Amino acid sequence: MGRHFAIAATSLALALLGSACAPMTPEARPRGALAAKTVPTARTVVAAEGRVAAAPRDAAERRALAEAYLRSGRFLSAAVTFSDVLRLRPDDGRAGLLRVLSLAALGEHRLALHGIDELGADVSPADRGLAFALAGDPRRGAELLEAAARASGADARTRQNLALAYALDGRWAEARAVAAQDVSPAELDGRMLEWAAFARPSAPHQQVAWMLGVQPTLDPGQPVRLALRDEPGAAFAEARDAAAVPMDAPAPDGPVAPAAAVAAAAAPMPPPMPAADPGPASAVDQALARMIAAQRPMAVIAQVAAGFAPRPATAQSARQGRFVVQLGAFDSAAMVDEAWRAALRRFSGLSGLTPASAQVVLRGRRFHRLAATGFATNAEAQALCRRYQAEGGQCFARPAAGDQPLRRAARGA
Hints:
With about 425 residues, this protein is an alpha+beta fold. The protein has helices spanning about 10-15, 35, 40-55, 60-70, 75-90, 95-105, 110-115, 125-135, 140-150, 155-170, 170-180, 185-200, 205-210, 230-245, 285-295, 300-305, 315-320, 335-345, 380-390, 405-410, and strands at about 325-330, 355-360, 365-375, 395-400, 405. Strands 4-1-3-2-5 form a five-stranded antiparallel β-sheet.
C-alpha cells in the first residue's frame, strides 16, 4: 500500500487533517480538509476576524476563524476560538476535536484530555481513540481503537490509527504487526522510523505541526474586540486593559494604532451583545481562563508585555527616531536576536533599520521587546508595519520608550 497510510483518517483525522499522512515527509502530508488549504495570509486572518466582529454570535464564522488560526500555527488563538464555537454550538464535533489538537499543541494535555471527555455522543469511539493518542494518553486511545479495528467494516485508516497509538505508547511490536496489514514490506521499516521520530518530539507543538504541515508562530492571542461574553478570553482582556499603564515617551504626532492582526492593550471593547447569552463555560473554558490569567504561554505574556513601558527614553533612543515598529516581546535576549534574524528573512525592508530592545517587568517577570527603530513620525512607522504585515509578520507602531540598539542582532543580520 502507499505511504499515505502513515497516520490514517477516521472521521476525526478527516476533521483534523483530511487523509492519512506521514508526519515527517512533506509529500505524504494530508491532501484534504484542513491540511489541504493553504496557510492563511495575515490579510486573510484579519478579514476573518472582521467577519466575526460583525457577527459575533455566528458560530460558522468563528469556526472558520479558529481554523485559520490553527492553519497559521497560532494554537492559543485557535484553542480559545474553538471554545467560543462550542459555547455557541455545543454539538459541533469538528470544533471540539480541533480544540483538542490546539490544546495538545500548547502542551496542555490535561486540558486536551478533558476536552475529549466533553465531546458529544456523536463522536465515534474510533475518533476518540485517535484523539486520546494525540492528547497524551495513547494507552486509552489504543483501547478504543482496538474495538473499532475489530468492528465489522473497519478499514485501513482505523488500523493505521491503532498502529500509531501503539507506537506512541511504546508498543512497537504491536505497532509493526498492525501496520503491516496495510503497508508493503518495502515501506514498513521507513514507516516505523517516521513514527519513532513522531513519537519523540522535542517540543509540544511538533506533532500537531507535522501533521498539519504548519509552521508555529508567535501568537498574540485572540483580539480583545472578538471576546465572546463570559468567554475565557474576556477575563484576560479585562485584566490586560485594567493593568495597562501609559508609556513615558514623547507625545505622538498622531494616534498610535496597533496592527490590525494584533490586539492593542487599549483596543476598544465590543458593543453590547444581544440579550441571549452563550452557554455556560465548560471546565475546559474555565481552565483556559486560568491558563491565560496565569500568563501562559509565552505568546500571551509577550502580548501583555507589549503594552508596558520600560525605562524612560534616553537621548540615544531619541536620536533613533521618535517612533518604532515593535515586532515582539520575548523572555530572553537570545530570543530577541533570533527573532530579528527571522524578521529579516521574512521581510527585506527591515535590512536598513536598526534593531533595538528594551526590557520590561510584568508582575515580577522580565521580558525583552524587539523593535525596528528610526522613524520620525507615527505615519512612517505604521507604513512600514503594514508592509511587514503583508509578508505575514505581526507588528505595531508605538513611540520610542527606552529602546536601545541591539548590536549583536545588527551584526547577525
